[in-house]
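Now for a sample.
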Amino acid sequence: MNELLLQSIIDKLNKIDESIRQMISSRPTMPDYSGQLEYVSSTVDQLKTEVAKMPEQLKFPTAGIYTLSQQLEVNNDLLKRPSRREVKHYHHVNAGIIVSCGLFLLLALSCVCLFNTRAQLQNYRAGDIKYRFLQLRSERSLRSMLSATDSIYRVGQRAFRVSIRPTTSSFAVLKTLA
């Protein structure tokens, strides 16, 4: 009986081998994914190690928070008692700037004086031209009056200037002459 059992097992195994060979011979159309499967398994292994390290990386940094809170307390104390500093402003003006400003003011003053002097000179010239016109183109009575006035002026210039005060009669004479 043993032999018979052994013979039947061997036959069965031969049939299985034959069916495996047939399957292998029909299988060449299937691609080989073994290299890719090895890459995926190595990647999965790397992911496992990274995931194992995650709890350490995600740990709450209590030591850092403690030092930060101590530094914040020190800063709060410093902000409650700020240091006093006196700020002194110094304005430095060069001597050259002061001298140039003074010279500019002196130049402006001299220009104003020259302008006023020129205006007075023009008034004197206008008065001189008017006086000469009256001497040349006037009647005899006016010429004699101008001549007498010139004589009085030459004799005492100060007295003449003091005695000239505008009155209504002198204005009336001037209006009639005009």
